[in-house]
Amino acid sequence: MVDSELPRTRLAQLMEQRRMTQRDLRDLFQEKTGTELSERQAYRWVNGEVKSLPYAHAQGALERIFDEPASQLLGPPHGSGLVRQHRSLTLGGGVLDREQPDWQQVIAVSARRARDFLSRMEVSNVGSETLDQLGDDVRRLAVAYQQEPLEDLLEDMSETQAEIFRLLDGRQKVAQTRELHLLAGVASGLMARACHDNGASDEALTHARVVFSSADHAGHDGLKAWARGLQSLIAYWAGRYDAAVDYARRGAEFAALSRNTSAVWLAAGEARSLAALGRQDEARHAVERAVDARDRVRRDDLDELGGFCTFNSPRQLYYAAEALSWGGEDAAEDAERYAVEAIEAYGTADETDRAFGDEAGTRCALAISRINRGEIEGAAEALQEVVALPIGRRTHGVVTAVQHVERHLGLVAAESRAANELEDLMNHFTAERLALPQ
């Protein structure tokens, strides 16, 4: 018998004697421990690809199944000592006789190496149906995130991200791995938004870094640009306007390559961050760049997921309104025009394009533009739908947008009954905000 016909471990030898498959081994392991043994780990045990013994509970399970010590089970098969020991010339997964090479043995060892390679290439822990289901789950969450309370979605989002991570720990074909990395990036982006909306910007940025890393592994420039847009958004609402500008500009190179709607997002996000820094002329130029980017958009698979994964026209109008609302009285007329257009666009948009947070932000920008023109009652009217939001929708971004209105009111409005009533209304709103159960 040549070496390639021998089992590599005592475990493989016993399984062969009992006509057990690796699936049988995994089922028995789960029965004994209550935990799942991955396909990859089973393969490594059977084929002797471990450098040390597994954890105690795993050793115990193996010993209960086969009635032999784990160290013996994961060691060489019985009878392997009969193989000649003076061989020392290695070829792939086998050895050759240095003194008198046997070319039949060369062929056998090479075939064994080819079989091993083929088995690793063909083993996959994910099928097309699983990928389709995960894609549907991510697409549903990307749309639902903009329309439903976070507390209703958070557990589902977290579990979806965890499932994708688990699959990436296994082995799959190259194309499947790329698709999983794309889905991991989007799922992590949704978790970044969830952290951000709960006021946890540091944790949000951690998830956003995973988005960029996933995009890098997937070779997806559109997702890289989207990751930078997400980082810019988080920094903006955390009051780190310089960082928000930097993130937006760092995404520009990837946006130029992909030309998906993230290119519009980055320019629009840069505009409002520049405006917050008082750089109004640069902000207006960025608003114009966003318009130009829209004309060159080439939608990709990320855009096709919809919801938060694409930057639609109503959202672009909202960002322009918010950018110009930082410009004071000189920009108030243009800011109001963009805000009204955005509200109208959201009103006629498809349901999947609606986003309660962005619509609230649009109304806050409208309120600021009216405050800058001295129209306090008009500002209060603009905020009516915002202050009526239930607590579950009073996310960090929405509350901060209302606080921006408060800040502008304090800078512009003189003491008056209308101003005092508006201030009280906003104080009452911001006092009760989203706080997820501990």
Fold topology:
Blueprint: H1 10-17, H2 22-33, H3 39-46, H4 56-66, H5 70-73, E1 89-91, E2 94-96, H6 103-122, H7 128-144, H8 150-168, H9 174-197, H10 201-218, H11 221-237, H12 241-250, H13 252-258, H14 262-276, H15 280-295, H16 301-304, H17 313-325, H18 329-348, H19 356-372, H20 376-382, H21 384-387, H22 396-412, H23 417-431
Helix pairs in contact: 2-3, 2-4, 7-8, 7-9, 8-9, 9-10, 9-11, 10-11, 11-12, 11-13, 11-14, 12-14, 13-14, 14-15, 14-17, 15-17, 17-18, 17-19, 18-19, 19-20, 19-22, 22-23
Question: Can you offer a commentary on this structure?
Answer:
- The protein has 438 residues and is mainly alpha-helical.
- The chain folds into 3 domains: 1-77, 434 Repressor (Amino-terminal Domain); 133-264, Tetratricopeptide repeat domain (Serine Threonine Protein Phosphatase 5, Tetratricopeptide repeat, Alpha Horseshoe); 312-438.
- It has 23 helices and 2 strands.
- The protein has helices at residues 10-17, 22-33, 39-46, 56-66, 70-73, 103-122, 128-144, 150-168, 174-197, 201-218, 221-237, 241-250, 252-258, 262-276, 280-295, 301-304, 313-325, 329-348, 356-372, 376-382, 384-387, 396-412, 417-431; strands spanning 89-91, 94-96.
- A two-stranded antiparallel sheet has the order 1-2.
- Helix 10 runs antiparallel to helix 11, helix 15 runs antiparallel to helix 17 and helix 17 (313-325) runs antiparallel to helix 18 (329-348).
- The longest helix is centred in the middle third of the chain and has 24 residues, at 174-197.
- Residues 80-100 have low confidence and may be disordered.
- InterPro entries: Lambda_DNA-bd_dom_sf (IPR010982), TPR-like_helical_dom_sf (IPR011990).
- This is Helix-turn-helix transcriptional regulator.
